[in-house]
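Quick question about two entries, pasted in order.
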Amino acid sequence: MSAQKESKLIFAPASSQTTQQADQYTKNSLSRTQLHPSPFTQFHTWFTHARDEAQVHQPETTCFSTASLPSGSVSSRYVYLKELDDRGFVIYSNWATSRKASDVRSNPRASLAFWWHEVERQVRVEGKVERLSEGESQRYFDLRARGSRIGAWSSEQSCVLREEEGGREVLEKRVRDTEERFEGMEEIPVPEFWGGLRVVPEMVEFWQGRESRLHDRFRYLWDEEGKEWRIERLSP
């Protein structure tokens, strides 16, 4: 047994050096009576609490996962949730060259996963995706720092920067060229390949950590026929 353990680079990590047992979650519980009929309202309630009361660092951080068809290969990355409306959860990115762009072209579905350690809560979202209009994307684009807007135009996201061709210098030259292109312009148009993507949920799960890994889990499922959300408690 000890030989097997020594061969592992990581084995049963824990926050304490005195035990290999995982932390216990004891801060809260979740019951059906605490849930709003709408997952959007419930998410807003949890998000506002995480941000304003629990002071979770960047609670808008979310793991955005996509899958390519026909291979089924899955990819994930961390992005920021930028909007929540009555249709879904909105992120912004490059939709021309990025891996996620390629994935959603072949398979227009995605998931989001939020983890808020300070309150021992998770939220998972699964659903179809849809692009926002140019006008909607422009409104958010205008709020970005100028450097971020220049960067959006300059970077062919996820494309290889070959060291033998200059590596990062190639990117920085593109940035200089874009700066020159928009010199003196405060209003920079949103690139046609860049913008918002909405995850329209078919499932939203709210997870509250509990002791002994007996967590409270509730899943909202959209009933297309009844045009309403159905709420179920799940086993931990």
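Here is the second entry:
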Amino acid sequence: MAPSATSTSPNSLETQDQGLTAEQLQSYNEDGYLIIPNALDASTTSSLLQETKDMLSSFSLNDHPMTKFSTGEKDNSHVGDDYFLTSGDKIRFFFEEDAFDCSTGELLKPKPRAINKIGHYLHVLNPAFRESTLTPFHAGIARSLGFRDPRVLQSMVICKQPEIGGRVRPHQDSTFLYTNPPSAVGFWIALEDATEENGCLSFARGSHRRTPVKSRMARKQDGGGVEFVDTEGSRFPKDFEVEEKEQEEEVYTMGEVKAGTLVLIHGNLLHKSEKNLSEKSRFIYTFHVIEAENEYDERNWLQPPSQGFSRLYP
């Protein structure tokens, strides 16, 4: 029997660098994701949640372009304006699509309850998130996964607001953060309990071994926004054991987790979340790591800052 995708974890994970156990690594390799409870202690989790709420309350609307973050659920489009494309070395705020009145364009929710996500440079510009990202614990995990020079290229808080938190349809993270060959891994940390009611993640167990990265989100060659293009490079990670046949219809396993839980997500893994129709938010913090040695080209929507992407190893 394969080990569960939920694993136990030792105490004080934030300060340890020993990486994953053999059982955890086997579970991740087989399933494409790994749930690690209590990766952040209650105090750190509470501090990051409060830091998020403070940012939501204090940011100004005076010069904000009111950019909405779209997952393509409604019109098969994806956000691609300048505010988004130049956010790689900044902290910016993106609205939920349903936070606005469709006829008037006016906000229907108070500002702190209207934001979809905050991104994409929290791991550098915000001290609290930086200290919880560039840690020996995360470096140890990256070593376990075989990274030679892991770089954190983006970070964000996803708010999944009460009543309006949008559905995210099945996707692969390497579609949006493509390297050749693919190498992205998501580190997803619950700042609040994530449940079926408020839109927790669901995973197509093992789909990372049978689902190639067929397309990638790229900057349009005329410079105006983004588009999805066929992947011309490798569609699976290097030296990866691939199942020959894709499944016609994937079965998804729900991943309800408690605050403080870390979920590792393989870049090829299909995962999704449903709309949050409940009265409770589902705040999470996530950052992504790629292999610096792999090709990362100028077509990617997220371009490195002048100093390059952040090193995870000291």
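Reply: The longest helix spans residues 42-58. Residues 10-14 have pLDDT under 50 and may be disordered. Hope that helps.
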